[in-house]
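Follow-up to my post from last week.
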Amino acid sequence: MIEVRHISKEFVSAKKYPGLKGALKGLVSREKTHKLAVDDISFHIGKGEIVGYIGSNGAGKSTTIKMMTGILTPTEGTCLVGGVDPCKNRRKNAANIGVVFGQRTQLWWDLPLSESFTILKEIYDVSDADYEERMEFLNRVLNLDEFFSQPVRNLSLGQRMRADLGAALLHNPKVLYLDEPTIGLDLVVKDNIRVAIKEINEKYQTTVVLTTHDIEDIEELCSRILIIDHGKLIYDGSLAKLKEQYGTRRKVIMEVPDPARAAELPLHEYLTVSKEDYEIQTDPAGSTVTVAFDKNKLQVSDVIGQMMQHVQVKDIRVQETELADIVKAIYSNGV
Ligand SMILES: Nc1ncnc2c1ncn2[C@@H]1O[C@H](COP(=O)(O)OP(=O)(O)OP(=O)(O)O)[C@@H](O)[C@H]1O
Ligand SMILES: [Mg+2]
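User reply:
Got it. Predicted complex:
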């Protein structure tokens, strides 16, 4: 459905100097700054996939989405969406896609929401019958009825986001681009939006590309993720594989009467492993001891068993590496 081949985007802007003198210098200077926001990225997304596109601030996510929607032209490379080049054939591409930018609305600010939908119906040439069916579905999953007659400017952020998502879906696009669709929303509305996306994907096999900083969006919706860092694609694969690769760390946290003594225990001798295979730490407050290890090297049950034989353990908690930690580590160290 989406075929991106070696696309790059370089932004060129006039170099800025500070102060009034600087502004004048900027006017006459020919110096330019170059910013390679997207650097030779390729990927393929099949019909019906929900793909999470993640990366830290300024990594190049929105720029990629803008090239896939035809808003920006790539400096190099090509992109095909449903067989259409979004830049060369914007009108045909528009019929195939729906876009939601969480940061700003696509709706007419002063018009009642219902009017925006009527206009979109005309723009996308949606038949009366299709419109009825679509609205019934959108009302059910997004509860648009609640505020359908209100002007968009009066809507709360959560209502506006539901309205924007509904508007992007009115013409039943094959591909839905969502750039931070849950930004600033409360937990209930976030959940509504996620359920709606899931349902739309299942019912219509809509392909979804989602950028987000909310790891829960990814966990709930995406089976595959692309990670971009400084314009380069550094990971393309399943969420499960990423977790398998990086999520094998376990922590056993135990409440014990004498953590300092527990931390001295020669676990490696009891378990006949090397000292490097685990780390043992006490917390500053001094009531717990933590054993951290790779689950491929040590068994959680063995660690707990040995500790319980040698010290009195009052409470135990086992912690897995969370996806948020994995992503944080990747953003700061690369894959
Ligand atoms: N029109 C532009 N002119 C110059 N530089 C730009 C322009 N648009 C984006 N950039 C730069 O390109 C880089 C990538 O920006 P982009 O908006 O794609 O990041 P992002 O991954 O969406 O980040 P965020 O998570 O903050 O939304 C940034 O360094 C940004 O400053
Ligand atoms: Mg962005």
